[in-house]
Amino acid sequence: MSLVYDYSSDSDPEGLSSSGKTSFEQGKSEFVPTANGEPDSEGSKRHGKQDELNYKSKRPKRSKRKGKGPWASWSSSDEEEEETGNISGKPVKFDSDRSQPGYRENEFDLKNDNDVETVQESSQFYGESLVDYQGRSFLKPPLEENVNFTKEPLSFRTFLPKKLLHRYAGHGSGTNVVRMLPKSGHLFLSGGNDNILRLWDMYHERQLLRDYKGHSRGIRDANFNDDGTDFVSVSFDQQMKIWDTETGTIKHRYSFSSTPNCAEYRPNNSNELIVGLSNSEIRHYDLRVSHKQGLVQTYDHHLSSIIALKYFPDGSKLISSSEDKTMRIWENQVNIPIKQISDTAQYSMPYVAIHPANNYFAAQSMDNAIYTFSMKPKYKRHPKKKFEGHKCAGYGIGFTLSPDGRYICSGDTGGQIFIWDWKTTHLLKQLEVPDKKPISTLAWSPQETSKLVCAGNGGYIYLYD
């Protein structure tokens, strides 16, 4: 007879305890008789569940990684229980799959978060007339200006801008993006931290023509399609919207569970576009497809936030840059990069642009330099074509190239504009903006020889000539 209940003594038969059960049977539920001598099935179930919980609590605790990637640290299940509040041993039911450690955003995440403020979408026209005396839309270049708006890139020579020609009101809390209307360049689009996009006239009275309201937070990026009839905008409110440039109506809306940082139309096909997200994904949409809101491909090889995207001029490939300090080149709609550009000494590159001759692309690096890369297979970096002298560390500073490819022009954290010669990489000119605030976005007119617009943290948009 053992001294402790349910434990066997030396005098007990081998494998039996005082309760008469073998060690194998101790894991099973105990027989509990009722008043009439029948077995109590409910009691057996209760005991079985309790024994199962006790067994689970005694299992060895496994360790899991914190975060993703090979450098993620390990955490024990004790830490996980503290984080999730699961101290009872019962399984936790999550409200959403997003709280799971291995969660990855699904194909399209249309959501109604309480954090995101809903904004009434609207657009107002401020010009004198929607059409000119011939009944043409204001998107058509003005006939009264003594400018040929049909010139091809590389067909005329450009010159260095020398003076400040005009100051636009811009956006009060900072301007994040300026984009010229494709081909003609007689209008340009801007977006800022006031959550508004605005369309400005480069000629006449240089007035505001139309605004576009529909985002609840600052504008992150915006880009026109090939002919300028539509444009896409992405915002810190985790939304992407496609607008009709002329009427201000919204054609498509997309919501994500992470911030979209950049978006770009595919050249020669305005029905396709790509968007780079802060969850390291690039999503490819086709506006003609209704299934999954038109999502046709996801490129997911980067390890951190996507900060820049650029298509090859023929639309066959695309370039992506990420905060993981790498750039990748992809075949269109193929989720396998054909080239990874990386180096142990490489910094993040928040802006990418293609030379008008289509033989090189350039990337702004966080180590205060602009590097150039060949657009031919192997995509090697040019060892001698490097542009330095400005400061851009810690800021997403953009740059632009002249239509003939002769000059490359970059902003600066000290409120200056730097212009280099493309062939020699010599610094040719420095211009200082009046407010001396960082200049983060620039655009050279595609039809003018020396007109350049720039903007940044100060909010004002400056036109130089």
UniProtKB/TrEMBL annotation:
Pfam families: WD40
Signal peptide start-end: none
Domain of life according to the entry: Eukaryota
Protein name per Swiss-Prot or TrEMBL: Pre-mRNA-processing factor 17
Subcellular location: Nucleus
Keywords: mRNA processing, mRNA splicing, Nucleus, Repeat, Spliceosome, WD repeat
GO CC entries: catalytic step 2 spliceosome
Record organism: Lachancea meyersii CBS 8951
GO molecular function, one term: mRNA binding
WD repeats: 168-210, 212-253, 299-331
Biased composition (Basic residues): 56-68
Taxonomic lineage from the root: Eukaryota, Fungi, Dikarya, Ascomycota, Saccharomycotina
